[in-house]
Design goal:
This protein has 486 residues and is of the alpha/beta class. Among the domains are: 258 residues, Alpha-Beta Complex (Amidase signature (AS) enzymes); 64 residues, no CATH class. The protein is 36% helix and 14% strand. It has 14 helices and 15 strands. Helix 2 runs antiparallel to helix 3 and helix 7 packs antiparallel against helix 14. The chain is globular. The model has no long low-confidence stretch (mean pLDDT 96). GO terms for molecular function: amidase activity. InterPro entries: Amidase_CS, Amidase_dom, AS_sf, FAAH2. Keywords: Hydrolase.
Length: 486
Amino acid sequence: MEDSFQSAEELAAAMRAGEVSSAELTDAAIARIERDDKAVNAICVPDFDRARAAARDADRARARGEDRPLLGIPVTVKESYDVAGLPTTWGMPAYRDHVPAEDAVQVARLKAAGAVVLGKTNVPLGLQDIQSFNDIYGTTGNPWDLARTPGGSSGGSAAALACGFGALSIGSDLAGSLRTPAHFCGVHAHKPTLGLAATRGMAAPPAPPLPIEPDLAVVGPMARTARDLTLLLDVMAGPDPLTLGKAYEVRLPPARHERLGDFRVLVLDEHPLIATGAAVRAGVNRVAGALAEAGARVERHSALLPDLAEAATLYMQLLISGAVARFPVEAHEQLRARVAGLDADDRSLDAVRLRAMLFSHRDWMEANQRREVHRHGWRRLFAEFDAVVCPITPTPAFPHDHHPNPMERRIDIDGVTFAYFDQLVWAGLATMPGLPATAVPAGRSPEGLPVGVQLIGPMFEDRTPLRLAELLEQRIGGFQAPHQGC
């Protein structure tokens, strides 16, 4: 495989052996972006001059005998991260000229580890979509089919990886924003345990870069291989040095097992609130079959599994109540009228989302308490299982849908339509309790589109789903370069 598609681990080995320089890798990555990204539009803010300078610095450092984890590796960064001297807009036109003066903590960690930042990748407006388009930078296409979405909100990062624009990228995940783009573009991603990686400098403008602890959102790594995910997570993990980092250091427990046949896995492919498309079900079954063939214990049902319908409801309540916290007062009056018109017996996810827009603090506290009950249920389940294998979304990448009101969009699942945001229930399964989840490629749809699944693991045992991902990659294969788009 050419250098553009080699793993970070392979590139590092080649540089250590003197077979290639960081300057050469960086020039090759830039040339590839300039050649192929006009069609895909993954890199929205290039930073090539500084990347070349950083690559030269990396080569000089290596010549002095230095060897940092990412020394000389070309990477990209999601647009929502602050990078000193580059705009951070979150796709919002009002902030097209917002240029932070300092790097986000994770960008600083990348640079300290020796990474060469090629530029920033595209996002949806406010990071609030399962697609990646905005009025500043335009639309990012899926490298496998440019008429389809690469996912969101880390869609630009996933598309960049699939096209060979750098070996690694960093994104964020609140509603599957790491996992869904990985699933749609055929790459790997890891949603860390809530709180494992500091998020300072990943806030919507014009908010200052404060060391807050988000309720659901995390930052995490994206890569073309599972081993590269672990490499990058080790760079990203750790509390903010302004707060908990003053007293604590991270020491993640090792993976529970080293052999695929030793894993105990619960496999899910059905959800009570939404259908699972045939292509995604086939991907889940392919992983389940590989596990069973390797001798792993594979179960399809467990009384220990927290209620999936209630989990989806809690997730939507926590997600939406937080998202609308800054709505203008007049919008609340309109919402009250809409909620008052709901049938008292309406328990659809659309109704859940609408009611959550008017949550009081008391309502949120009640939902949070139920979340703690679910977390305890997951602890009990992970005493019997090591991981849960399940979908990320019910379908492969869908065609671009830019309807201005996302609440009126629909998602087609094998000929049956559902509310657009209902497809988030699988992503929310790990997000709501704060569990780690690794997205892995699991084959192709009949149309040739990538299909991924997620491996959900126990809280703060991120190395367990990551190791499982690595073993599955060895058995069923992983990333393949797309045949069109780039």
